[in-house]
Amino acid sequence: MQHWFMNLERVALSVLLAATITYAHRNHVRPATPLPEPVEQVSLRSVSIEGDLPSGWTVGAAWQIERGGWWMGGFSGLEFDGENLVTLSDSGVVHRFTPPGPHAESLELRPLVLMPEPLSRDSEAILVDGDRLRIAFEGDHRVADYRADGALESDVRIANLFKRNRGVEALLAGDPAIAFGELGDVALSLENEPRELEVRGARYSVTGAARWPGSDQPLLLLRQFGLFGMRAFVAAADVGEDAVEVSELQPLPLGRFDNAEGLAVRAKAGGGYEVWVVTDDNRRAPLRSLLVRFDVAPDGWPEGLSSD
């Protein structure tokens, strides 16, 4: 009887989670006012992340970011720009901030509202390219370039290879950049004429992508959404002429209500790497906005990296 009630509870939680995500996907609403201040201070609460990790990985620090105005939460992308981290909310707001230290209790965000609205809603992935921002939009299959002041520079509708609200979820830097669809089975090489790539071995949704510094090797973030909630993975990948081969899926010990959607990597001065992950709370409980730093030893997974 106890086992039956546990299964019922899991089903109920799964239905709640699915309803939360569906509601948020249909309501990427951005009010006209109030606009965020040039600098927004938000509170951080340290959280515990425990469980199995890839070889040579440890949890350096993890925080829950408090909910704030409409420009807060819904974090769906993460990228390093020099020494700063840049994250993207699904309502079209880019936030720059200095990576917090392990004992930080607050975060100073510098928000940039993308214009025009409503074109900047449902923003899901970001690349920093010099003084430009490249943003991918999931719902209507677009990739757009913005100037440093948030003004739209170019807007390209890409081939409609993806299902509604299952469009581009991750961008991988490169020449050309690669756009991954959320279902994890197809990607686009963003050349002058975008070219379709088959994605093999992903198994789950591709929600984030980065390259290891000093190496051309990609690192992917994946999310499994199932009956009992969500699971997060990282994976190695190889980009070929016609396909992206995904391999060595490694679980990350995030919670079943942690919707991992952004990934960034940088080298550490003493060797090794920092891998940062951000989660999307869709502005609804029980999901939460987490910022997690994983420390990777020089000889950690995957093999063959060198941060010297």
What does this structure look like?
This is Esterase-like activity of phytase family protein. Pfam families: Phytase-like. InterPro entries: Phytase-like_dom. Residues 71-172 form the Phytase-like domain. It comes from Sphingomicrobium sediminis. The chain has 308 residues and is mainly beta. It has one domain (2-29, 41-296): Neuraminidase. 8% of the residues lie in helices and 47% in strands. The chain contains one helix and 21 strands. The protein has one helix spanning 2-25, and strands spanning 40-46, 57-65, 75-81, 84-89, 93-97, 106-113, 123-129, 132-137, 142-147, 152-157, 168-172, 178-181, 186-189, 195-200, 205-211, 218-226, 229-239, 243-252, 260-267, 273-279, 290-296. Strands 3-4-5-6-1-2-21-20-19 form a nine-stranded antiparallel beta sheet, with no helix packed on it. Strands 11-12-13-14-18-17-16-15 form an eight-stranded mixed beta sheet. A hairpin with a 2-residue loop joins strand 7 and strand 8 (132-137). The longest helix has 24 residues, at 2-25. The radius of gyration is 18 Å and the shape is globular. The termini are far apart. Mean pLDDT is 87; it is low at 4-13.
